[in-house]
């Protein structure tokens, strides 16, 4: 939840409490699977986590994990666990994300009183890695048979996953993608343009809704806002689609060259 643009105090509270319960119960639940108290603690943890991401949406980790699962038939949870610290390291460069990672560090039992914002964020990532090691999560994708030659295809598909577009501003604007432990740089203006059209659509839709519902007006101006908003949204989707097929073609060509 560190970069969710739809996050609210409610989703943040659910997410942090979920992390606290995971810190308290996960290891014991893994190594003592018949312990009903630990299993119950993890059941509450997953419920709260679901309440958080069902409302604030998912992000880069899930967008990439879905590609790994579909491409290699790998367990979704394991893929998420491997990707999580790498993506959070990228996220930590964002101020808001770094602050939220500090909250996660506390929930994971780290004493952050003497740490600054960046140190606290880094300690959260270290705590995540440590927990993963302790419960036997593989240290890297190579242990799951993931091949570097497939990264372009995986990265291309991940960019257009629904959860990819629910994160805090930064990734598309800076044209950077943290993918599978590597950073791939994309200088794709079409994506930036599509992002702006999407923002314009949201702005106009909000203006139209305000006009109609709050001011109780349904005139030519409100209808015009709505029409332009839908046009911008359609244009954004067209641009995303064009970019998707271009990147897919590039990835296939690079894969053929390597082979």
Notes on the protein architecture:
The chain has 2 domains: about 180 residues, Dehydroquinate synthase-like, alpha domain (Up-down Bundle); about 70 residues. It contains 9 helices and 2 strands, in the order αααααααββαα. A hairpin with a 2-residue loop joins strand 1 and strand 2. Helix 3 crosses helix 7 and helix 4 runs antiparallel to helix 6. The protein starts with 8 loop residues before the first helix and ends with a helix.
Structural topology:
Elements: H1 9-31, H2 36-56, H3 60-72, H4 76-91, H5 95-107, H6 117-134, H7 151-159, E1 176-179, E2 182-185, H8 189-214, H9 220-258
Helix pairs in contact: 1-2, 1-5, 3-4, 3-7, 4-6, 5-6, 7-9, 8-9
At CATH level 3, the topology of the largest domain is: Dehydroquinate synthase-like, alpha domain
Please give the CATH architecture of the largest domain.
Up-down Bundle
Through-space gap between termini: 38 Å
Shape: globular
**Poorly predicted residue ranges:** 168-194
- The side-by-side strand order for the widest beta sheet comes to 1-2
Mind telling me the CATH class of the largest domain?
Mainly Alpha
């Amino acid at each position: 939840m560190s970069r969710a643009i739809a996050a609210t105090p409610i989703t943040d509270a659910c997410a942090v409490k979920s992390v606290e319960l995971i810190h308290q119960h996960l290891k014991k639940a893994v190594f003592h699977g018949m312990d009903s108290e630990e299993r119950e603690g993890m059941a509450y943890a997953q419920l709260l986590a679901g309440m958080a991401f069902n409302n604030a949406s998912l992000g880069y980790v899930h967008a990439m994990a879905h590609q790994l699962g579909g491409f290699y038939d790998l367990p979704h949870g394991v893929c998420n666990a491997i990707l999580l610290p790498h993506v959070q390291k990228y996220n930590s460069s964002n101020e808001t994300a770094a602050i939220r990672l500090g909250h996660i560090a506390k929930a994971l039992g780290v004493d952050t009183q003497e740490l600054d914002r960046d140190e606290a964020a880094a300690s959260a990532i270290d705590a995540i890695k440590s927990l993963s090691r302790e419960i036997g999560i593989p240290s890297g994708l190579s242990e799951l048979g993931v091949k570097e030659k497939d990264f372009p295809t995986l990265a291309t598909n991940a960019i257009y996953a629904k959860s990819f577009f629910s994160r805090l501003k930064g990734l598309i604007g800076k044209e950077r993608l943290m993918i599978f432990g590597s950073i791939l740089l994309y200088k794709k203006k079409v994506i930036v343009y599509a992002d702006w059209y999407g923002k314009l659509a949201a702005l106009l839709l909000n203006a139209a809704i305000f006009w109609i519902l709050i001011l109780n007006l349904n005139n030519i101006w409100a209808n015009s806002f709505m029409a332009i908003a839908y046009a911008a949204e359609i244009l954004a989707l067209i641009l995303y689609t064009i970019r998707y097929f271009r990147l897919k073609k590039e990835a296939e060509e690079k894969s053929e060259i390597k082979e």
